[in-house]
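Notebook, student rotation project (T.W.).
Task set for the rotation: take a protein with a known small-molecule partner, predict the structure of the complex, and write up what can be learned from the model alone. Partner molecule chosen: S-adenosylmethionine. Sequence and SMILES entered below by T.W., checked by me.
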Amino acid sequence: MNINAMRARQSRPSVARVYSYVLGGRDNYGVDKNVGDYFMGDLPGSEQLAITNREAVLRAVQSMAADGIRQFIDMGCGLPAEQNVHEVVRRQQPDARVVYVDNDPFVVAHGRALLAVDDGIEMVEGDVSKTSWIREHPAVARLIDFEEPVGLLFAVTLSFLEDEEDPAGVVKYWAAQVPAGSRIYLSHFRSGRTREAVATERKILEAFGHGRWRTDEEIDALFGDLELLEPGVTPCVKWRPVSDATVHELSIWEEMIVSGMARKG
Ligand SMILES: C[S@@+](CC[C@H](N)C(=O)[O-])C[C@H]1O[C@@H](n2cnc3c(N)ncnc32)[C@H](O)[C@@H]1O
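Predicted structure of the complex:
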């Protein structure tokens, strides 16, 4: 990378780096820390958005693997984390294949070094809104058998698509590509329910400049006519919790991000 590209990268916060910072990661710059520190300092508790989301993603892939899914496409995968999708699914499905997709070159560079560790895993630089481009990518053709159920992940990613990028159309496209038995998991920021939600949405959009938080009705609509699995669309912290101990009266932050999983019938 040349010096100008490096400077440009370091001068603007990236959603992947801020999210990773809030989760305790070390691959970030000062601009990312500033945004992360704002959330943790000025909106105390807001780190629960990242934490409860990440924990639910891992429970979702664990559940897909338990149901026999052996191939995954993780759309907007983010920076390598403490536990990654391939590591979690391979505990149950040792031969599982994973294609990680992200549009952030910083994520792609780290993902190629730390996630794509064998020939069952690929890291693709791509924009989730460019569905057919991803579908036709050689990495997808090599690793994903579209005759076999696929696990599709859109964890928070669709919150970073504008309406014009047609997030519901993205889900619909992929649902049409995969066979019966496939699973589609997504999580999404929930708009405007509290003063804190309005402040957080404003800060996220100001920092990253792209996307939209959506109402419950709009998030439900992202699933189209797919069959939603239990427990439906619910705050991430309540999405198939590991124990009843995690089911308590939710904080405003825990209420601010929801997830759901559908099965293609
Ligand atoms: C908040 S992180 C979530 C990471 C991971 N999915 C998770 O939930 O733990 C959102 C990720 O989506 C990526 N992203 C945002 N818009 C995207 C787009 N249009 N195409 C691909 N990736 C995108 C960002 O670069 C970032 O890595």
